[in-house]
Known about the structure:
- By secondary structure, this protein is of the alpha/beta class.
- 41% of the residues lie in helices and 15% in strands.
- The chain contains 27 helices and 24 strands.
- It has an eight-stranded mixed sheet with strand order 8-5-6-9-21-18-17-20.
- The longest helix is centred in the N-terminal third of the chain and has 23 residues, at 17-39.
- Bound molecules: iron/sulfur cluster.
- Iron/sulfur cluster (SF4) binds at residues 257, 308-314, 343, 373-376, 378, 380.
Amino acid sequence: MTTGKFRERIRVSIADEALQAALDGNAERRTQGRINAFASLPDHEARRQRAHAIRTDVIDHLDDYLRHFIIKVEDNGIIVHRAEDANAAIKIFLEIAAEHNARLVAKSKSMVSEEINLNHALQAAGLQAVETDLGEYIVQLRGERPSHIITPAVHLRRHEVGALFQEKLGIPYTEDIPILTNTARKVLREVFLTADIGMSGVNFGVAESGTLCIVTNEGNGRMVTTVPNVHIALMGMERLLPNLYDLALFLSLLPRSATSQKLSVYTSLIHSPRRQGDKDGPGERHLILLDNGRSRLRGSSLREALLCIRCGACLNACPVFREIGGHAYVGVDGAPAPYPGPIGSVLSPGLFSIREYGQLAQASSLCGACRAVCPVDIDLPGLLLRVRAGAPEFDENQEAVAVPIALRSGLRLFKGMAARPHLFGFMQRMAGAGSRLLPARDNWLHLPSFSGWGFSKDLPRPAVRPFRNRWKRLEHESPQDLPKTEYTPAMDAIIPAEGFDLTARFIQELKALGGEGHICRTVEIPALISSLLNARGIEKVMVDAHSAQVLAGSGLEMVLAPDPSCLAGVTRATAGVADTGSLLVIGGQGEMLSASLLGEVHIAILSCGDLHASLAEVLDTERVRQAPAAVVISGPSRTADIEMTLTIGVHGPGELIVLLVDDSAPGMIK
Length: 670
Ligand code: SF4
């Protein structure tokens, strides 16, 4: 049963017209975007089933995977800490901060940090923690929590952000989204460059290689893991995958479900701190592995919730979330639930308290839309029902919830009827026929004492021909067993059809992302880059070791170290993915990730011979395993955090130009 505080928040949300408009806009675009994104993945149902099987295996053998993962991460030079609960995680964080005399923490988006209320704890300890994801920054300025796990400011309209920036950042009022985004970029740039600690979440930890995988679109995730001298990653201990090959599978599902993209703009793959001779990267990296109720959840009937990869699709699909938004999800005492929506209605009671948050599971129509969109096929309706039933084995130490006598008698009566199908059917038909005698408007009964039933609608008139009668008929007409797709490992590789041209496909995909691709010969590169930079009035350019050799004698002023004053960077791309128009850029050993991050323009040099058909071929390689850090780049930096309006160029470069080198090509320069 829902409590007063929860009902109150629901009523407020439903009456808030601006919120309703914002939620409608989000739901429509996300739903359509998701459908379009999955259209390019014809075997997505098979991938989904495989993703479910992989995550189930990880949760079943979590101790083994964790042991392996920790050994690899430590071998790679990252300091691992285990935190049993929120207090332990905060204590570890503060100890690291104290060791480094830290004052300023640049944070990238992390739901785990919301879960442990990290910002509040850092502030109480005298540290300044600044959120750097645009949506998170907006809600932090408003003193709010995120209302969605992927789009934190989904509840706001542009005029509210305009008024906020006018008040807090002192700019003239504007509703122009690029101006608002650019303002945040300038303010947060200073934060990245002066922060003592960069803090991030982790989307996936890879057990076989000890990889920390972090996906972002704006580039703030790359900034906080590259620029400050100390990086602290906070990770829920269940977020593991067996190997890099499986990571490629999950990366084909997560961005499509979360933001309707084939791949997020930046997929960072982190292995170690800066090594001797490296040009950039933090000198120290820490990983805090958080339990905070996960072990207990794993031993409960709600364990399937641990399969979640936090894509947010179930929130967008849920008819209840679409009406009430994330801030309405509160506990019995009015405390905000750490996770909203269908998965939040399982995770919040499962991780924290079923007594406090169990009521959230009532806010579901059990329509199954959440399960239908879940990329790992979590049985969310089943889990919600278990929460409603109190998941007794899970919360054994809590007293039984007192059920009012009228409700108890009513439920007993219902149980007696529901256990006798003939009696149940008869009563349904009686109710349907009897309701014809009562006053009704359209198909809703008009009974003053039931008016306002369910907050936003009245008591529906029972059907004369109940659903179970119609279902019985359907049963005879429908096939009983839908075929189940079998998984075969070969499905992860995109088999190029005859005549599949990797270069043409790469350029086509890159253009669709907002990037530029040019085919050229090696000898043409210096002149081409010079003309591209001259056209933009740029004279000084950051370069990695390989590009410095290629550009020798070009007359450009080249900087071989991270330099935020450079407006452009030139790097080598180690590999390209034709199917997604993505580049793999590796750090360490003379290469420099900052060159693809700090400027406004990134020019990448990629040999056509290094193009591959699929992401799995590029990720599952020794080059990636050996790199201190690497990044897969898919287009220019972007955000859609204000009213889902796409804005190019946030914290990373707003322009991405790829020179595809093919010395057998006729060449560009005549
Ligand atoms: S439950 Fe499924 S749909 Fe919902 S956030 Fe988790 S992975 Fe995404």
